[in-house]
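Example (one chain per record):
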Amino acid sequence: MLAIKHVTGYAATGAAVLALTLAGCGGGGGGSSGGTSSTPSGGSTQSGGSTGSATSTLTTANVAKLGTVVTDGKGYVLYRFDADSANPTKVSCYNTCATVWPAATTQGGVTTKGIDKSLVSTVKRTDGGTQITLAGWPLYRYAKDDEPKEAYGQGVDGTWFAVTPSGAKITTPASTAPTPTSTSTSTGGGGAY
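Predicted structure:
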């Protein structure tokens, strides 16, 4: 009886880990694409309760193995998502995806330090927020980056990348980032998921 409880517990834990992994790393994380119109960076306001990481400043920082990256005003690395597009601007990360990858949002204008202001704009999200864009690319934080200048989101699922001051993605893997893997993990009960 005790052995059955342990196997069942391992299976439930494994299923929870799988669900979180799939929600945070793949596709668009659910939701529809939208928010395709850009507005100038100084003229937008946020209306509604969007999930996101509000900032009014974009700046740069030197991150080990990545070089110069764009950060928010608190020094957290900002990322772009390959499922989005820059021309026209399209946001693809909503719902569960937006929990793991909160949008870099603003409630007003955006100031820049070390970034060409003409490359910065915003896009209205379908969930009501106003997301900051750089060279047309919507910007995000990674929920697992606990400290400024951490880049654990670099290369996740081969679709999330830290962004340069020009809006380009950095394809060099960060030494601090866990290696994205799609190998199966044992559940302890002999099966894999």
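Caption: The CA atoms of residues 38 and 123 lie 4 Å apart.
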